Inverse folding.
């Protein structure tokens, strides 16, 4: 097979992967099944503390972060089979009293959000919930994590209790058969989603670099970060994908920045991505987190930087605000980075937004 050229690598990387949105698309979507359970956790946390409640519900929080933990028999039995455990060295946070848990309303339905004010506790929680208690490296520019496919054995135990109430003579074998045949294929019955946020500076960019005071930038960072992760939740539920990809990050930063600043700021976005001095790139910017091993040619990365830079200025020109930003998100997701950053990118997005107006129905929130 002939090796791909730089433009071919760039075009292949930019290929569409999102599903088209359903038509008509009625927003907000109904809450997913796990939300009611997390509302209970939030209520319990107000009386007993967030850390105490979560540690009681999720077995991974009873194990330390250490290399090889995910392969240990006790860990696998607890997290994959729901077996009770009393670990000798349970997970510890430096400041558990600074955890906050709340349910955030989005156009894709409510989602639980866990916020910590301490960087080390953030990395600990991400490693526990998203990396099976392994000490993986967490980039300094990462301040948020969307956890998906989180097995919630507390929900499964409730289903098991309901089964035994309806079938008092079924016994354990009857429950195991029911679980394999009926429950296990329906992952919505026991798998949760969760957003974990730190309250540090967004993308690792300091308040001084943003020319803002610390308190203001801390507040803006949390708003951007929350809306950013909620955008990933939206694309997963509505468009069927959520990836570690530059286009996904453009969508999410567009929604986050425009929510926090009142309009999209290309200068903010480019600073977050390490492209504030384009065509130069600042090491440590977020751009390097997303292209992975997709590119063999160095010039392909240069094309990507150019595409991201041009896209930022296209987005800054768009005259949309409020709920219309959802139309921009959908328009971005139904095109691709090569088209958006091209000479017709602005006109293409405007026309796509116009065509989507009749397809999206916004209902009033209760």
């Amino acid at each position: 097979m002939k090796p791909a050229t730089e433009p071919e690598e760039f075009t292949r990387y930019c290929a569409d992967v999102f599903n088209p949105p359903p038509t008509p698309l009625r927003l907000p979507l109904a809450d997913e099944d796990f939300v009611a359970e997390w509302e209970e956790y939030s209520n319990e946390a107000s009386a007993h503390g967030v850390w105490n409640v979560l540690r009681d519900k999720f077995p991974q929080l009873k194990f330390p972060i250490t290399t090889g933990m995910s392969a240990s028999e006790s860990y696998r039995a607890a997290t994959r089979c729901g077996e009770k455990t009393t670990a000798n060295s349970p997970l510890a946070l430096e400041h558990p009293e600074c955890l906050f848990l709340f349910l955030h309303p989005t156009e894709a339905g409510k989602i639980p959000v866990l916020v910590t004010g301490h960087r080390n506790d953030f990395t600990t929680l991400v490693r526990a919930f998203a990396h099976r208690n392994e000490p993986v490296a967490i980039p300094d520019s990462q301040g948020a994590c969307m956890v998906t496919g989180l097995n919630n054995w507390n929900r499964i135990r409730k289903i098991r209790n309901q089964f035994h109430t309806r079938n008092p003579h079924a016994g354990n074998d009857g429950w195991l058969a029911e679980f394999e045949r009926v429950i296990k294929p329906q992952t919505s019955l026991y798998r949760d989603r969760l957003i974990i946020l730190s309250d540090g500076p967004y993308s690792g960019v300091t308040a001084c670099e943003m020319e803002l005071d610390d308190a203001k930038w801390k507040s803006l960072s949390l708003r951007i970060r929350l809306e950013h992760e909620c955008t990933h939740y939206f694309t997963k539920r509505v468009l069927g994908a959520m990836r570690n990809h530059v286009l996904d990050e453009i969508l999410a930063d567009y929604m986050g920045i425009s929510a926090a600043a009142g309009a999209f700021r290309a200068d903010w976005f480019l600073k977050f991505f390490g492209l504030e001095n384009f065509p130069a790139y600042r090491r440590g910017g977020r751009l390097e987190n997303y292209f992975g091993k997709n590119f063999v040619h160095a010039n392909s990365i240069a094309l990507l930087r150019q595409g991201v830079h041009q896209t930022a200025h296209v987005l800054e020109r768009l005259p949309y605000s409020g709920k219309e930003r959802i139309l921009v998100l959908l328009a971005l997701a139904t095109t691709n980075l090569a088209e958006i950053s091209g000479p017709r990118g602005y006109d293409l997005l405007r026309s796509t937004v116009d065509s989507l107006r009749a397809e999206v129905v916004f209902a009033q929130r209760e």
User: Anything to note?
Assistant: Strands lie at 25-27, 99-104, 111-116, 144-151, 191-198, 360-362. The first helix runs from residue 6 to 13.
